[in-house]
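Ticket #483: bound-state structure for glutamine.
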Amino acid sequence: MTVKYKTIKEIKKMISQKEISHKEIIQDVYKLVKENSNLNAFISLNEEKSLKKAENFDNNPSDCSLAGIPIAQKDLFCTKGLRTTCGSKILDNFIPPYTATVIENLENAGCISIGKTNMDEFAMGSSNETSHFGNVHNPWGDNLVPGGSSGGSASAIAAGIVPAASGTDTGGSIRQPASLCGITGIKPTYGRVSRWGMIAFASSLDQAGPMARTAEDCALLLNEMCSHDIKDTTSLDNEIPNFEDNLNNSLKGKKIGVVKDLDLSSLDKDVIEVYENSLKEFVSMGAELVDVSLPNLALSVPTYYVVAPAECSSNLSRFDGVKFGRRSKNPKSLEELYVQTRSEGFGDEVKRRILIGSYVLSAGYYDAYYKKAQQVRRLIKQDFDEAFLSVNVIMTPTTRGPAFDIGSKGSDPIQMYLEDLFTISANLAGLPAMSLPNGNIDNKPIGLQIIGNFLDESSILNFGHMYQTKTNWHMFSPEGVIQ
Ligand code: GLN
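RESOLUTION: The complex was predicted; output attached.
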């Protein structure tokens, strides 16, 4: 009996029918972690505590909704007593004294956090190549990137090690790796999930969310991850629906926005074909396609690469060798302590972002770059507001193509930044968006992006789940279709 490739739903059933004990599940997960160590998906494991928690569930059965479900946590979330590196050398010895709210919520629901997943350093990247702990490999091909920054989480699910993982998404870091690894992931509405205890990259864009095999599992996870949190001043106090309630609603008469300004010319024709086939699938379920216009969409990548570095340069100033993590040895002055610690502790991409951020925030350039970017951000948000007056969801491809080779884009940051062409606008506008597998190209998975209106995760989950009842792309694994 194994939990390899099983969904949360299936594991819950195995537990309730007593086909497997909690301890056997966790033992099996660690066996899978070890068998797949070549993926480099984990930075730290939590074996002893996880086994103890499982034994506890065996001895004292719990009716918590996710009791005993193994989950991998992105190494960006602070976990009390468990090393949290954020993929960086500067935090390679950091053991937080507290746990992030979202992790606490999942654990209170019964999830067992089996370890911390590898990621791009401080979540800056789209391929996992910026991690201090080495590249994560995509189970679909050893030389393929898993996407980033939540690449370790996506890789672990795609390999069938865990049914679920947490991720974070500032410009696409849940959806892009989900697309490249053939799994399902959601970036919720900004403010739905508490950011307390998440190591900040760009605070006005960062949002945590679930990654799993199916939309249905994402709904189960989202039910537990969302909460109003007074420790995060941007946390929303809106009612949190039961995200499972609308999964099976009919799509008849529902409207899908198709973005007419989207420039698909740079995409492979296979990618366009996969995308158009999915739209047809929705039409066959009764949905209607409606042209929508997002005239400022093309400005989202440049806008993001002003706003995100600006916020990161400010957020990362706290890593100075005094309070957290590494400290340079034998500095001769306070200034040298700062300079040496940061020079030694940060990788090239993080340094590049800090430089760009400091530049666009500097007195001489603030109006020309930062202020302008904020104005364009507002226009992008207004475009979406307008579009959602006439549609329920908007669909685009998630990525420009399937997974690419490790090392193939590393030398050109701009090419890497363009990876998030389709995902970034949802972060700038604060909207919920999901990626789910909708095809294979050359035996590599690829995803469809469904963007929802503000606070309307239920609609994207409904569309995603209905698609997964009609198609089996989410059932494809690197070893063939999961039975
Ligand atoms: N790839 C984007 C970046 O490098 C987005 C990363 C993210 O969402 N954390 O900034």
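RESOLUTION NOTES: The chain has a mean pLDDT of 97.
TICKET STATUS: resolved
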